[in-house]
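Bug #2210: token dump truncated for histidine kinase?
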Amino acid sequence: MELEQADTLENVERVQNAVATEQGYLDYIVQDWACWDDTYQFIEDKNQEYINVDLQNQTLSGINVNVMIFVNSTGEVVYVKSVDTQTAEEIPVPEGLLAMIEDGSLLTKEEDDPISGFVLLDEDPMFIACHPILTTKYEGPSRGTLIFGRYFDDDLLDSFKKVTRSSLLMYRADEKMPTDFQTKIKNFSENSDKIMVEPINEEQIAGYFGLKDIKGHLALLIRADFPRELYLHGEKTLNYMYFFLLLTGLMTGIGVKFVLDKLFISRLVEIDDFVTKVRSEKDLSKRLSLEDDDELYRLSKEINGMLNEIYLAEQELKAQAREKKVLLDSLNELTVFMDPELRIIWANKAALEHMKMDLEEAIGVCIKAVPGISGSLVEYLHVEQIFTTGEKKSGEFVAKDGKVWFAQAIPVPDEQGKIIGILQTCRDITERKEAERLLHEKQIAEVANRTKSEFLANMSHELRTPLNSIIGFSDLLHEKVYGELNEKQTKAVGNISRSGKHLLSLINDILDLSKVEAGKLELNYKEFELISKLKTIKNLLSPIADRKNIEVKIAVDKDLTTICADDARFVQILYNLLDNAIKFSHENGLVKIEAKKKGDLVEIKVTDNGIGIKAEDQYKLFKPFSQVDSFSSKKFQGTGLGLSLVKQIVNLHGGYVWFSSKIGEGSTFAFTIPIKGNDRNDGNNEVKPLNDTETAENLESEGKNKNINQF
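Reproduced locally. Full output below:
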């Protein structure tokens, strides 16, 4: 009985070790991910590149993790993903897990305070591993908690059955369970680390043990069943032996020897020879064949069954090894595992290709002697010191060819904690570093541009004060307030006033543009009547249109009455567009202003049949101080700031601008802004040319088919 108890305890401990190995694997992998500079940065900026590269469904499936949750230091969930490890398809995140994050149960408090154990969810029990998010050097401050979860479902329980070659039953502590479990739950609640062994019946014996949740309470109760056949057979055989000894007392010594040799000894020798041969040849395909229906025959069947199970377990381990190799070979990182003498034990496909070697050539070679980056990284990371300190090392390394590599050297200990090797990984981050450099240069340029804009805005204020004085006094002189002037003096003073006003207009445009670029231009929204405002702008420019005998028409949707915008800036937009249309139209031409309602937006178009814009010159539009060609800049007065201001002001309103033009046929400039106003003011909209089909003629015919009023 004591032998049976001891054997059962040993078998149950084997099951416990299998469960502990799964939990240990989850603890190890969450630590590896949490103490990674890329994860540390991702919590800060939530960059999409990290998600695209490292957080794919196949990645979670490959490392056998169902749930991955990133939580920042304030307890806010930054990113979450839940997948089926068998299909790599996304599945819902357990609500119970999110609730435990909200109440703080799964959040680490200190930098050296990981959380490990089980949680009972509505779906299934789950292995949980939580680790503070630190840098690759295990340095803080912690930016939050990384949580990994693996369902303890039927598939995982079946895998434990295969590995331990036992029959397992599992029940949750919070649910109703069979009677034999209920009688033991009180003992396990008081001491969940103990193992209880008791026979179930004459054929089976069971070992019970409990598993704690993350708070140290009993979560699961597991029963491992084992056959008592060996011990029953032993008892039966012992009875046979007693009976046999009784008979042998009546037989001669020669007869006893003959019978023993025939029935037991020769066959036991055969069994011993078979086991020795299998062990020496390591050939698990062989099977023992004994005749007769007795105990030794049944023992041979048990040996054959054990060989079958060992063979299947060996095949499963080989399959898992192949899967891990495929996974590691699929990585772009160079991965090399080396022993304490720095000899290569294993390398993945990327590393072998980089070293220009195959695995058979690489095994046993000192890593310092291999071609490529690996040998240099050993010197750079001082890998030999890791065997003494036991600390992981990492850093960025610039190779002779200019490439930048991020390298890690991770110690790999055995069960006793002794370091038996180093796992070295390195990843080419040249493109990422170049992108960071370009981003830094862009930020510097943006700062310089804002500084320029602020300078222009300040200088424009300084220039306007004396210029207003010049214009004022020249107008007084021109009006002969201070006395009579001769004809030449009057003409000269008039030129001074006109030039000053033109210069003031230019400075005002520069000031507005600088305010926009410096982020200081604010909009004053108010509601106004659209038709009335369009007529006002038309009247302002009618003297210029009349000089060229140009007709200006206004067409507005009947259901479009009022809009909410900065009316002064709205006038500035329409004034610039209408002024350009009149300026570049032929004598006796036609300019149309159309306003239509499109959803929550008002769309306004200004169309002329003037000179048009060459396709190769259209890219110059909406750029400050830029005109389409030198001829236009001489023939038509302008600074090139008008359209740039139009774009910026429309963007501030939350709208966008577009245009269409054909040389010799005219141009259409259009913009949209929200009818009820906009408070985003992000200024990120772009100027868009119309499609080839959206010419001025198409826009005109479209207007005729709409229900609009003609003015």
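Output looks complete on our side. The two ends are 109 Å apart (CA to CA). Marking as cannot-reproduce; reopen if the truncation happens again.
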